[in-house]
Design a protein that fits this description.
- The chain is an alpha+beta fold and 68 residues long.
- It has a single domain, classed as Alpha-Beta Plaits.
- 21% of the residues lie in helices and 18% in strands.
- The protein has a two-stranded antiparallel ribbon with strand order 1-4. It has a two-stranded antiparallel sheet with strand order 2-3.
- The two termini are 14 Å apart.
- 22% of the residues are buried.
- Bound molecules: iron/sulfur cluster.
- Iron/sulfur cluster binds next to helix 1.
- This is Ferredoxin.
Length: 68
């Protein structure tokens, strides 16, 4: 997964999935690029108002969430 340059720094992902995201200089960063499947990551991606969180299947590379 990754956070794109569209991040607006609202912090929703950090509140939704604090194990996976943190804010650096007001913008979100993923703590890890590859994680085990977790609904919290998908929820964060779906709730992101800027659609800035992209999640991919590590094996196939297919998008797991809609990409902008
Ligand atoms: S929810 Fe989206 S816009 Fe808000 S901080 Fe996280 S990645 Fe950035």
């Amino acid at each position: 997964m990754r956070v794109t340059e569209n991040c607006g720094g609202c912090g929703m992902c950090v509140m939704t999935a604090p194990r996976y995201f943190h804010l650096v200089d007001g913008l979100s960063q993923a703590l890890l690029s590859e994680v085990d499947p977790d609904d919290a990551v998908l929820a964060a991606a779906e709730l992101c108002p800027m659609t800035a969180i992209e999640v991919f299947d590590a094996d196939t590379g297919a998008a797991v969430t809609p990409t902008p």
